[in-house]
Each structure stands twice: as C-alpha cells, then as structure tokens.
Amino acid sequence: MMRANQKQRRGAAPNLARFFTKQLLLFMALAFLIVVVDFFLYALIAYRESNEHYNDGTPVTTVRAVDAALSRDEGGAWIFAPKGLETLAEQDAWALLVDGDGNVAWSHGVPTEVPRVFTPNDIAMAAHYADLAGYPTFFWNRDDGLLVVGFPKGEYWHESLTFPTSTITNLPLYVLLIFSVDLAILFVMYVVSRRRTQNAVGPIAEALDALSEGRAAELHLKGDLRDIGQQITETSGIIEQKDAARANWIRGISHDIRTPLSMILGYADAIASSEATSDEARASAQVIRAQGLKIKDLVTDLNTASKLDYDLQPLHLERVHLPRLLRTVVAGHVNSGLDELHPLELDVAEDAAEAVVLGDERLLTRAVENAIANARVHNETGCTVAVSLHVADGHALVRVADDGAGATPEELAALEARLARARTARSAAGSYGEEHGLGLVLVDRIARVHDGALKLESKPNYGFTVELSLPLV
C-alpha cells in the first residue's frame, strides 16, 4: 500500500499536466473546427450568391434574354418580344444596339445622359470599365451590332483583375503552404503551452499531495498562479495548526483519563479479590473492571490512530515471527482469566509455523487484539473465538473468527462502506463514533500501512470473521 501510494503521488503531477494538455488540445481542435466551419459557410454563401445573382435575373441571363427577344422583320423593322420587355422591367434595366458605324440602331428605356453615338474608343472604355455614363453596363456581340444592357446606378460593382497563369496554377500549392504553416504554428503553441503547463502545475500537484498526506506545503509561484500558491501555503498553515491542536487534544485527554481509570481498575480488582466482598458486589466489580478495560482499549486505539494519522509514530519495521506473536496475544488473554464467556483457541497451520513478516510488532499486536475485542464486544452472551494462521499466495493470513451472532448482509455492507470511507479520509481517529467503534477501522489502517489488507466475512447466527493479510518476507 505504501509503495502504491508513492507511485500514485509520482503520477499526480503528470496527470494534472495531462488534464491541461487535453484542454489545450481541445482548444486547438475547436480552432481547427472553426476554420472548417468557416470554409463550409463560405461555400454556402457562395452557393447562395450564385443562385441569387448568377442564375435567373443576373446580368448575364438578362443580356441573353434581351438578345433572344430582339430581332428584325423582313422589312428591316426591329421587333422586341414581350419576354425581353418583361426581363428589362424586372431588373429596371435599359438596352440599346450600336451598329457598325457607332450609331444607336435600336434602344429601349435608355436614360437621356447616355450617348447616342459611340466612337471605337468610347466602346472600348465602356467595355473595359463596364460603365456607361455612370450606369453598370454589360455587352453582347451580335451579327448586326453590339448589344448594350445597362442597370441602375450602384446596382453592381465591377473590378477587373488580371493574374499570371503561373499564379493560378500554383494557387493550390499556396493554399497548402498556408495550411501547413498554420498547423506548424498550432503545434509549436501546443509544445510550448504543454511545457509551461507542466512546469506550472507540477509544484501545485506536489503541494496538493503533501496536503493530502498531512505534510506542510509551501509554494512560491510567479505570474498568474501566484495567488493560487499563496492560498495553498495559507491553507497548509491552517491545516497544520488544526492537526497539531487535534493531536495535542487527543494526547491530553488520553493522559487525563489514564490516572482515574487506573484507580478505577485497581479498586475494582481489590473489591473483586477481597474475601469480605459479597458475591453481588464481586460481580459488580467485575463488570466495572470489564467496562474499564474497554475504555482503556478505546484510549489506546485513539492514541494509536492519532499517531498514525499525523506520522507521530513511525513504523519500527523488523522481522516479526507471527506464530510467536499470536501465541503471546492468546496466552495473555487466557492467563488473565477474566473472560470466561469468550474462550480463545489458536491454530497455526504447518506451512505457517515459520511465517515471518516485516512490520511493527506493537501495531500488529494491537490489530490482533482489536479483532479479538471486536468478537467479545458484539457477543456479550458469549462465544468461542478461534485465532488461526495460514499461508497463501505469498501472504500470511491471520484469521480471528467467532461463532457468535454474526451480522446480516446489510450490516456487513454498512461496515465495509464505513471502512471504505475511512480509507479515503485523512484521519482514522476522526472515524470514531460510528457503529463498531474504532477497532476495525484501526485494524484496517494497520494492515494497509504494512502493505496488507483486511477482509470481513459474516452470516447471521454463524459468527463473524476478520482476516488480516500480510506479505511474507
């Protein structure tokens, strides 16, 4: 578990940087999407404009309609079909026909300011600029002359553009070059932004890891993240002060309880062992002593949990011979002779006779004692408690099973949910007060600091089993 936590902490900064990288990639994808959408919008607008101005009713179609409607009869008179009249009326346009001598041979609705005689130069200039007397004009060559169709002033804008053939030929290459340069710029932005993001969020991720582990965090960031660094530093100071106050409070309360509790236990022992004590008083003294021992265990659990929470009790790792440890714990309970309702049994499998783990013997002893105490507390009418040791898959399995009332599936699920909450909480001591007290929460935490695990099994009326799994050495 400790090694897993270290790997998780090492991966926190890259994960945070990866998050910001994804945001940057999302931004770039959106920028690219905007370009694509703009292209399709351009195509859509071009299609709309083409339909509206370059199909029916456009200058080209109008000129062609007028040309088709204009003809001469056998006598040489000009005939202008109704279709041509309708087309010019729809566009508010006018038309004239210039013969080979430059004279207007035919006209319809021509403004007065438009000349009636044209020189070749006038025709050339009007055709080049598409303008005649300020009117946008369009030309169509016929066998009998030059057809000129004019539109209202300001209706059309004309621009004459001339490009070399090589420019038009190379246009796709130029577009590809521009697109490639844009992609290169986006890639450079991505690389630079990713590096800056990693450099910026790395210290923040480490500081947050430190806070989650109860260690002090101090950040001195620059630029836009300076305020965040100051807030994390201030938060670290506040958390450190609260943790220190809490740890001091638990130690102080524990110290204050020990002295009167020792006196209570001492007087209870004296009353229970006195020959002058009546049977009723002796039974009451035994109850007082039993409840006093529960309080003593609770105080010990609170102290142990507090020290584990705030790293006040570093692990004193050594090679622990589990069979010897279990025999010591069981012998201590049996020799006390104070709990006849909960007899203890010990079974060490042959393959576990030399089982050794690397751990803190004092904490492991506490874990086994808490598992035994859990069986006694929840079976006040009595039960047999069997302590066993087995080996499987490179782990030592310490099982404390009773044949008492057990727990319903709902109760077992609630207990496992509470243990899961305690694993994500920073403080095990803060978990006290829920059902089943602090005992199993502390057993679970002790197992995890030894890279082990806790497993619970139970059925109603078939007892309750606590299994502690520890890696062998």
Automatic annotation (TrEMBL):
Catalytic activities: ATP + protein L-histidine = ADP + protein N-phospho-L-histidine
Highest taxon of the lineage: Bacteria
Entry keyword set: ATP-binding, Kinase, Membrane, Nucleotide-binding, Phosphoprotein, Transferase, Transmembrane, Transmembrane helix, Two-component regulatory system
GO molecular function, one term: kinase activity
Segments crossing the lipid bilayer: 24-45, 171-192
InterPro entries: BphY/WalK/GraS-like, HATPase_C_sf, HATPase_dom, His_kinase_dom, HisK_dim/P_dom, HisK_dim/P_sf, Sig_transdc_His_kin-like_C
Assigned EC number: 2.7.13.3
Segments forming domain Histidine kinase: 252-473
Coarse class of the protein's main subcellular location: membrane
Protein localization: Cell membrane
Glycoprotein as UniProt keyword: no
Matches recorded under SUPFAM superfamilies: ATPase domain of HSP90 chaperone/DNA topoisomerase II/histidine kinase, Homodimeric domain of signal transducing histidine kinase
Protein name as annotated: Sensor-like histidine kinase SenX3
Protein source organism: Gordonibacter faecis
